[in-house]
Amino acid sequence: MSVRARLINAGLRAARLAGFGRKFEKAVAERSTLDALLARVRHYDEIAPPKRLLRRWDHESLDADGSALHVLRYRKDKPTARVLLYFHGGGYMVGPARMHWNAMAALARGARADLAMSIYPKSPEHDHRATIDAALAAYAAMSSRYGPENVVVGGDSAGGGLVVSLLTALRDQKTVQPRAALLISPWLDISMSDPASTAQSKSDLMLTIAGVRAAGAYYAGDREPTDPVISPRFAATSELAPMHVFVGTDEIFLADCLSFAEKAKANGDPLTLRVIPRGQHVAAIFSTPEGKIARAQMLALIDWP
After folding, report:
1. pTM (global) more than 0.90
2. In this structure, which CATH number among 1.20.1260.10, 3.40.50.1820, 3.20.20.70, 3.30.360.10 belongs to the domain 3-302?
3. Helix, strand, or coil here: 64?
């Protein structure tokens, strides 16, 4: 493990010891306390491109089913014919963070692609219906502009789960799939029903089972938490775009990612799995040597000419 990764983990461990996980569990259990918490936390969201990026990237804001879709093009490059459409993490409640913008801008730059960041509807104000509709609208806009073969969709955590829900919805609608999907520590099971996930909670320094389940309940709305529409671990993997999954050994989403990958492999569906040793949640987008290696692997897997 790199020195930088150790320092990040030390910070996460200190936050865990300070009880931030338990505080979130308590806050999310009551709508009034959750609203108060989100009012504070969302103050740090970067719902528009950071000014630092706009020094080098041209910016266009589109409407996707009433939600903002920010499209960035690197100013010094020739017009490109491909795009990375990204859905950020944040428990379906917050985000994106500056980390999402920076990591995905670097990834898009390495792929010589534009970057499109979706600011999809958040819970508890909205449930999965509005969120998935916004994802479908964002994909429709980007596939119309670039062609589906030139669109790669990606997401981390909740955004990763949303990407798989998007792919399954496209399949069910008989819409052409994107070129590929990048799934970074995807949240695939709202119910967190696998006992192996609970066992992993001792090593996960960022997430707790109870906190994730409580947040998932708001996103689920009136659907059962194991419904494949919102928990794509239980969805069929056939006829989906090639999926590339990156997950850490020390996070609670590991078991669901392994199960999902095993199902795809058994069915002969295109999916690659990269497990980051001693990796925490979303380690693949951290500004660490391990994160840079993971993102280099993503570029190789996309295999854009």
Report:
1. yes
2. 3.40.50.1820
3. strand
